Every structure is written in C-alpha cells, then in structure tokens.
Amino acid sequence: MLLDVQEIKEYLPQRYPFLLVDRVVEMDVGKSIVAYKNVTNNEPFFEGHFPHEPIMPGVLIIEACAQAAGVLGFKSQGKKPKDGYLYYFVGADGVRLRRPVVPGDQLRMEVNIITNRRGIYKFSARASVGDELVGTMTIICAERQVEVD
Asked: How far is CA 33 from CA 7, 83, 122, in A?
C-alpha cells in the first residue's frame, strides 16, 4: 500500500462521511493512480438509497473517482490542501455505469491523467469490483488557490 487513509487525508480536504478513498495501492506520479473504497453496510447513504436494497449512488461512484483523481493531481504537483490549493470537481463526460455497488464490495478506481492545461485536469477513470466493470468516465477538475487559516 502506498497511502493509507491518514496519508490520504493530507491530500484530500473531504472527511467522513464524504471521504471516499480508503487507500492508494499504486501511483505513477504525473500519470496514474489505483485506489480503493471499501463499501460497508453502515455507509450513511444506504439508509435512504435504498433501505431494503442498498446500492451506492452513482454520483458517489463518480465522486470517489474524482477524489482519487484529486490525490493524483496533488501528488503530481507536489501540493497539498494545507498549502492553499484545492481541486474542484467541475465535470464528468461519457459516464457509463454498468453494475451496482453494494455493501461488502471493494470499489477499485483506476485513474489516468489525460491532460493538464493551466490547472484544468482531465482524467480517464475506470471503476470496478473484482473483475466486473462498474463504470467508466472522464473526470474534469480545476486546481484553485484558496486562503488557508
């Protein structure tokens, strides 16, 4: 494992219950990342989505991929949120979700940098559970400088 959840928190401003990356197992800085989200039965979103047939909302699968992309972006630039930088999710293109993610699944996110121009990143992302494809998408994030207290 390259980064555990404590180290991931250095690169992502999100916290429970919205931190959706549990560990990073591979990274080629400036190119790609492989990260995991362990989906447990006690995830807060399962209370309402859906109580008798829990399914991870598709928008949270997209968000998990975007968070993995954020870790890659920060590591690639040698920056952290504490330095006054954030990566804002600004879009997703070509999203295709093929399989539901349910409690007990381990969501694997593979993200590759396509381009980085003037702080606008484009990433290709692929989410899977085991050998089954969950979804594919292109994620767009914008690096922004923010004030730090």
From this structure: 15, 22, 14
Full-model pTM: 0.96
Q: For residue 139, give its domain range.
A: 5-145
Look up tokens 């990433």; give the residue: 123
Neighbours of 22 (CB within 10 A): 19
- Summarised one tens digit per residue, pLDDT across range 5-14 is 999 999 999 9
Number of domains in the chain: 1
Catalogue the active-site residues.
Answer: 49
pLDDT tens digits, 83-104:
999 999 999 999 999 999 999 9
- The angle subtended at Cα 44 by Cα 72 and Cα 25, nearest 5°, is 25
Nearest-CA neighbor of 54 among 119, 110, 105, 130? 105
* CATH code, domain with 102: 3.10.129.10
